[in-house]
Amino acid sequence: GIQVEQSPPDLILQEGANSTLRCNFSDSVNNLQWFHQNPWGQLINLFYIPSGTKQNGRLSATTVATERYSLLYISSSQTTDSGVYFCAALTGGFKTIFGAGTRLFVKA
Amino acid sequence: EAQVTQNPRYLITVTGKKLTVTCSQNMNHEYMSWYRQDPGLGLRQIYYSMNVEVTDKGDVPEGYKVSRKEKRNFPLILESPSPNQTSLYFCASSLWPGKNTYEQYFGPGTRLTVT
Fold this sequence. Notes:
By secondary structure, chain A is an all-beta fold. Chain A has strands at residues 4-7, 10-14, 19-25, 31-37, 43-48, 52-56, 59-64, 69-74, 83-90, 96-98, 102-107.
């Protein structure tokens, strides 16, 4: 089946720094989504991005479907950005496969 | 307010005692799904449903059952829970995945402990 790999697994940033999170998928996918899981466990939609680039405030995402990867950019990080970031791919058979996540800690 | 609700939010039970975790959405979504989250493993899909009476296995269906008798509800049933089913469970819903606006919305999670 499709494999979804995220990197880095862990990331520590100073407040104000920028970062790039990566999501690689092993085969073509129908859709790709990015989530943030906050320290209370809540999963929050960030982007639905099967291809192209989207921006929402300090966050933006780019998916290059032909090269099977997606990137999540966080600029001017804040302590509230801490948590775990997941990407999830929808396969041709309509299963959803999550990556293992990138755990981000932003220091004040 | 558009939302996915799960009940109970927390549950401690004993091995072998049947339980049901309910999931309901008010967005008229076709696609619904159950996931479990375990440390270091991310989220893994248990079952999903494309519409009423249409369900299919995800990656970790063993020990679980689901039903989709109504569009808004998608209960998760553990007929005989075991300690290895101790986990954090999430329900999610979205429009039918073939549509361009596919986006999954998640419930708040159910933390289950099986002793």
